[in-house]
Design goal:
This protein has nine helices and 13 strands. By secondary structure, the protein is α/β, with parallel strands linked by helices. β2 (41-50) and β3 (53-63) form a beta hairpin. The model is unreliable at 5-11, 23-31 and 279-293 (pLDDT under 50).
């Protein structure tokens, strides 16, 4: 069979699985359940280089309200760098950000939180173990009476409301260091709800917790979706991504190679093959033309 026939068969297979392959990674993508919806967040042609290495290479991606978007890729695919552009920790060399269809001048963690309504939940959570839950939730954003006196009663009450919204048994006065890994995830997510973030970025949320607590975290992600929040989930646990994601974007050497509409029929093996197939193809291309591509995880 010639190369053109092979390519045609491959395109038909991708179409059957609701997979959009790049050249144009946004081709054919519509809002889940409603093609007329404006994306909650849209990034276009994001580029970030570190010296000669292009860690993020022209990424365009849309996220819709109430959607869980899985983001996967091999080590060095650019996942962490891409998240750092969304949070404002790193600045894109070029590209645009839109929130509900309106351009946002995105230059710092502050504009990420206030302009794009993004909250980042890191793998290691960045919580203060010696403080209580309510103190962690309001850390650096404490509420005060007359701009002077800490309004402890208000903060404990609001913390309790958010924890109840998440159907959690964690109490505002619990010491964070005494909580399990899954319970600490609840605290990190509660902060996002407390300050009304619309988009929650989750970096390997099930990596540092016991297997019997993984289900609790996945249920929390689905709870966030039910509350109308949008989640970008980065995880090496492909079974978790396949279970909760509405769509899955695959990054290879800084660029999106596929965007998949998850119909829950794809297997872990098939998803892994798509990830590593792109890595191998890109590696051959790089070796052939001397181009440096790909960056941080």
């Amino acid at each position: 069979m010639d190369d053109d026939s092979n390519a045609l068969l491959r395109d038909e297979e991708l179409s059957d699985k609701n997979v959009y392959s790049t050249a144009d990674p946004t081709a054919g993508i519509t809002a889940p359940g409603n093609s007329s919806k404006i994306p909650l967040l849209a990034v276009e042609n994001l580029v970030k280089s570190f010296g000669p290495v292009r860690a993020v290479d022209g990424v365009s991606l849309e996220l819709y309200e109430g959607e869980v978007l899985g983001l996967v890729g091999d080590n060095g695919a650019g996942k962490s760098t891409f998240l750092s552009l969304l949070t404002g920790y790193n600045h894109a060399d070029s590209g645009t950000f839109k929130y509900r269809g309106k351009p946002v001048a995105h230059a710092s963690p502050s504009t990420s939180r206030k302009g794009l309504k993004i909250e980042m939940i890191y793998q290691h959570l960045d919580l203060a173990p010696d403080l209580t839950v309510w103190q962690n939730l309001f850390l650096a954003e404490e509420k005060r009476k007359f701009k002077v006196i800490l309004d402890k009663r208000y903060m404990i009450h609001r913390a309790a409301d958010v924890l109840t919204e998440l159907a959690s048994k964690v109490k505002p006065t619990d010491l964070v260091g005494a909580l399990s890994g899954g319970e600490q995830q609840v605290v990190a997510i509660a902060r996002a709800l407390l300050f009304e973030r619309d988009i929650i970025l989750m970096d390997e949320p099930t990596a540092a917790i016991s297997l019997n607590k993984v289900r609790d975290v996945l249920n929390l992600i689905l709870k966030l979706k039910g509350l109308g929040k949008s989640v970008i989930l980065v995880s090496h646990r492909l079974e978790d991504v396949l279970e909760v994601s509405d769509r899955i974007a695959i990054l290879n050497r800084g660029a999106i190679s596929h965007i998949i509409t998850n119909d829950h029929r794809m297997t872990i093996t098939e998803l892994a093959q798509m990830m590593f197939e792109g890595s191998v193809q890109n590696a051959v291309s790089v070796a052939g033309n001397g181009k440096l591509a790909g960056g941080g995880d």
